[in-house]
Design a protein that fits this description.
heterodimer, A: 480 residues, alpha+beta, ten-stranded antiparallel sheet, seven-stranded mixed sheet, globular, B: 459 residues
């Protein structure tokens, strides 16, 4: 009996052992990317991108399509990186490590203590209370969002805060290691420090869909943005307190201290830091420079495209929002993997704003010197695909019932790296060389009577991105 | 192995087999349904993919001689056509693929418009591949293969997970079922155990023991039959016991009855040997010996028949005087020896009965009366109105012994009775003889006041 029982148990054990779950295969890049790398690996050692891939000095042409609703004009410089070889590399999403946080805290706090954010202090609440009481007395006009009927409620609210909020002098040290956080991030380091030049705020957070490190000085912005206006946007001319070279030197030093790879400044612009009263611009109180740093691979930079680097709400974005093709009928949301972005603002005193989003891992080189498609082929592709890509305008016009003309003026064609990914992969991608056709786009109605219905602003961005290896069109919004 | 263990094991094996078979069938059916559903869904998506792709191409018609431009357009339109893992192969060249493997290695559509399918394991995962060869209006010379690949590993994973679950549930059900089976079988075996205990008790001699099982099933029927059997056994045992006792009684009775005639024979023989008798006295003694011998022979035969229920008594009208005379002759030697006087009063002429048995009965009564009397006392026999009574003035019978006095081998005073040669059988025999005559026996006695025994015959 015991023997039979033992045999029975053994049979069960074997059955259970045989039902083990099949182990998952390791993640491998898809065939598209595999083919691309194969093509890229056919490259020989070259000495010049221009000569080997027939890159001219200028790119020019005129094209139209979609019943002449899309009009494209190109008179563009071609910008090539200094490096002669275009690499490809694997890249992965990563979160900020404690080591990253320690470096940033050391650099930004400059030895000062990090304190917990106090929110609205008693002093600030008193300030707001007096402001709203002055409005109530008629000394200041009501110029806020909402109606003046909200005034009694606001007075009551700030009166309560003035009674209960902590004093500015009351503060407790904040943790400098990641703490669990309930919100957009799963873990976060957050606080402020009193530096010689003012109050500094820092936030380093890792979440399911995004990772952000932000530093800013009081008055220069907040966790989401920097209060800047580009100098060319100002109504008046201003005199800069420092040179762009000095700003660049400051920015490079900062990035070298906190970055985890090789970065270069891709764009530097003179900015003014705005002052607002009642949410109205009243002037600027400081000037400085805004720098966009990009990662490089073997010296080859990743392109900086601000339009596509805006973080979407909730980690998902409305497909077609930028292209204007999203409609209530085809509304779909897609998860996204935000592009890495490093923005640095400096003034003569130092860094006033720093934001680093969606850091990448150290790139894993696949090809050092990629075989690229000739520029003439790229041109041919551009000529056809720029029209194809904008062919939704026909659908939009039919839906709207009036014709809108879309003008694109290409002024720069640039070769750089871009991160592409598989449709279902939000953690691993491939850096590939791409041709970005930069230009200005503006739309206007054919019939002027519809002018009010069409946004008449111009925006400057990438009109088309073509994979430099295989000539395929890449949607920067989607990442593939 | 005990019965309950055998039955439990068999039921458990059946339970395991049934559960396993049912689980396997259910799993197989579920898997088939899931796969069929997945296949249908994939086929719909393939149709949708192809239609969307062709629609995109129609929507984005271009004119170009550049193969690279054509490839870029095909790639662009195919990438916008659908979300599913898919592959576009044009003239043998992969234009677009979101897979790690080449489906054309597993599936090659033949004619244009013919949809082909493949289901199998690739790189450790289960896939369902649908492919179709199609022509593109915009590029008429090109052969396009459109593949859609559905990863059905989750279905297989679900089925494996379900198998785990079913195995676990089956195990739990088997254990619970086994426990219930054991409990129920043991409970159902309880009546059998009761029967066994009852049988053991009966075997130990408790013939009145019965199985108390009231169920209406086969076991209840078995119990009832068992009880019938026990009753029959009890009856037979009692009969055998009664028979054995009767036989013992017969042996005792025969032995007992031997004494009186043998005493007469021996006394007469002794007298013949040791006393000078005249010829007439010698002849008388010899006749007495013969009569006693014959009486003895008849008595033994009748006693045997009476006690084994094989004697069919043939009562006849007999003379009471003659009966009394025979009794006198049978007992006079014994009474003379004891110095006891016998008085016989005969007021009845005849009664219906067996002479030899009645003679034995009354001789027994006279013998008992003589044993209870002291020398010089009188024993009286009186026959009147269908009643024969034997009285004495002896020591009497205690009141508490009266109800047992007719039981075989019962003796009021064992030591005295044995000393006097008694075996406790006399009154038992008298009772048997009286009952054989359908008469009534009544004994009246007071301690120290004598005893009267009456035999009342039916009139």
């Amino acid at each position: 009996m015991k023997k039979k029982l033992a045999l029975l148990l053994l049979a069960f054990a074997l059955l259970l052992a045989g039902c083990q779950e099949t182990p998952e295969s390791p993640v491998v890049i898809e065939k598209n990317q595999e083919m691309m790398i194969e093509v890229a690996q056919k490259g020989n050692e070259t000495s010049s991108l221009i000569s080997d891939f027939e890159v001219p000095e200028k790119f020019s042409g005129d094209w139209s399509g979609v019943d002449n609703c899309v009009v494209v004009h190109a008179d563009a410089n071609i910008t090539l990186p200094d490096e002669a070889c275009a690499p490809t590399a694997k890249i992965e999403r990563r979160s900020f490590s404690q080591a990253d946080a320690d470096r940033m805290l050391e650099v930004f706090l400059d030895g000062n203590t990090l304190y917990q954010e106090q929110g609205v202090t008693r002093q600030k609440a008193q300030e707001r209370l007096e402001h709203y009481q002055a409005i109530q007395r008629g000394e200041i006009p009501w110029e806020h969002d909402g109606t003046i009927d909200e005034l009694p409620r606001l007075i009551e609210y700030y009166a309560e805060l003035a009674r209960t909020s902590p004093d500015e002098s009351e503060r407790s040290p904040a943790s400098t290691v990641f703490q669990a956080y309930d919100g957009l991030y799963d873990e976060r380091i957050e606080g402020y420090a009193q530096l010689e030049r003012g109050t500094a705020h820092i936030s380093i957070g890792n979440g399911a869909m995004r990772h952000d490190a932000v530093f800013y000085m009081d008055g220069y912005g907040d966790i989401n943005r920097c209060n800047t206006l580009y100098v060319e946007q100002l109504p008046e001319e201003i005199e800069m307190d420092m040179t762009a070279e000095a700003a660049l030197e400051m920015g490079n030093a900062l990035i070298a201290s906190v970055g985890n790879g090789s970065f270069v400044c891709d764009q530097i612009k003179a900015v003014a830091y705005a002052e607002y009263e009642n949410e109205q611009y009243i002037g600027y109180f400081d000037s400085g420079y805004e720098m966009e740093f990009v990662r490089t691979v073997e010296g080859f930079p990743i392109a900086h495209c601000p339009k596509y680097e805006m973080p979407p709400e909730g980690g998902k974005y409305l497909v077609g929002a930028f292209a204007g093709t999203a409609t209530p009928e085809n509304e779909t949301y897609a998860e996204t993997w935000g592009y890495e972005r490093i923005t640095v603002h400096v003034n003569k005193d130092g860094v006033v704003y720093f934001a680093w989003s969606n850091p990448y891992s150290e790139p894993e080189i696949q090809t050092v010197d990629s075989q690229l498609m000739s520029f003439s082929d790229i041109s041919d592709i551009f000529a056809k695909m720029i029209i194809v890509k904008n062919s939704e305008l026909k659908v939009i016009n039919e839906r709207n019932g009036f014709v809108v003309i879309r003008d694109m003026d290409i002024d720069n064609v640039r070769l750089s790296l871009m991160r592409i990914r598989s449709k279902d992969n939000l953690d691993q991608g491939l850096l590939v060389p791409v041709w970005d056709f930069w230009g200005t786009e503006c739309s206007y109605p054919e019939d002027e009577s519809y002018r009010d219905l069409v946004y008449n602003g111009k925006y400057y961005s990438v009109m088309l991105t073509v994979n430099a290896i295989d000539g395929t069109i890449i949607d920067r919004e989607l990442g593939y | 192995m005990k019965m309950w263990q055998k039955v439990s094991l068999i039921c458990s094996v059946i339970l395991v087999v049934v559960v396993s078979v049912c689980s396997a069938l259910l799993l197989a059916m579920t898997k088939d349904k899931l796969l069929v559903s997945a296949y249908e869904h994939a086929e719909l998506r393939h149709v949708e993919l192809l239609n969307n792709f062709l629609e995109e191409l129609d929507h984005h018609a271009i004119e170009s001689d550049s193969e690279k431009v054509k490839h870029t357009l095909l790639h662009y339109c195919f990438s916008r056509a659908g979300e599913a893992p898919s592959v576009l192969v044009v003239d043998g060249e992969t234009i677009y693929s979101t897979l790690r493997f080449s489906p054309e290695n597993y599936l090659m559509p033949g004619e244009a418009g013919q949809r082909v399918k493949y289901a199998g394991k690739i790189d450790g995962k289960e896939y369902y591949i649908i492919g179709i060869q199609t022509r593109i209006t915009q590029f008429p010379g090109k052969v396009c293969l459109v593949y859609l690949v559905e990863d059905i590993s989750p279905i297989h994973k679900s089925v494996r997970s379900m198998m785990w679950t079913f195995t676990l549930v089956g195990l739990v059900c088997t254990l619970i079922g086994l426990s219930l089976i054991i409990i129920l079988i043991r409970r159902s075996m309880t009546p059998l155990r009761q029967l066994q205990a009852t049988a053991d008790s009966i075997a130990a001699g408790n013939y009145t023991e019965r199985a108390d099982i009231q169920s209406h099933d086969e076991i209840g029927s078995l119990a009832r039959n068992f009880n019938h059997m026990a009753e029959s056994v009890q009856r037979h045992v009692e009969e055998l016991t009664a028979t054995a006792r009767r036989q013992q009684l017969f042996i005792g009775a025969v032995t007992h009855e031997f004494k009186t005639p043998l005493t007469g024979i021996l006394l007469n023989a002794d007298t013949l040997q040791n006393t000078y008798l005249s010829e007439d006295e010698q002849a008388e003694a010899l006749r007495n010996i013969e009569a006693q011998g014959k009486w003895l022979e008849r008595l033994v035969r009748k006693m045997l028949g009476l006690l084994t229920a094989k004697y069919e008594m043939r009562p006849a009208e007999l003379s009471v005087n003659e009966l009394m005379e025979r009794v006198r002759e049978s007992t006079e030697a014994l009474l003379r020896e004891k110095g006891i006087h016998l008085s016989v009063i005969c007021e009845e002429q005849s009664i219906h009965g067996d002479m030899d048995l009645l003679q034995s009965a009354i001789v027994n009564l006279v013998d008992n009366a003589a044993k209870a009397s002291a020398p010089g006392q009188q024993v009286s026999i009186r026959a009147h109105g269908k009643v024969i009574e034997v009285s004495d003035r002896g020591k009497g019978i205690p009141a508490d012994a009266l109800e047992h006095i007719t039981e075989p081998f019962f003796m009021v005073d064992k030591s005295r009775s044995k000393k006097l040669g008694g075996a406790g059988l006399g009154l038992a025999l008298v009772k048997e003889i009286v009952e054989a005559h359908n008469a009534k026996l009544k004994i009246e006695s007071t301690e120290g006041g004598g005893t009267t025994v009456r035999i009342r015959f039916q009139g």
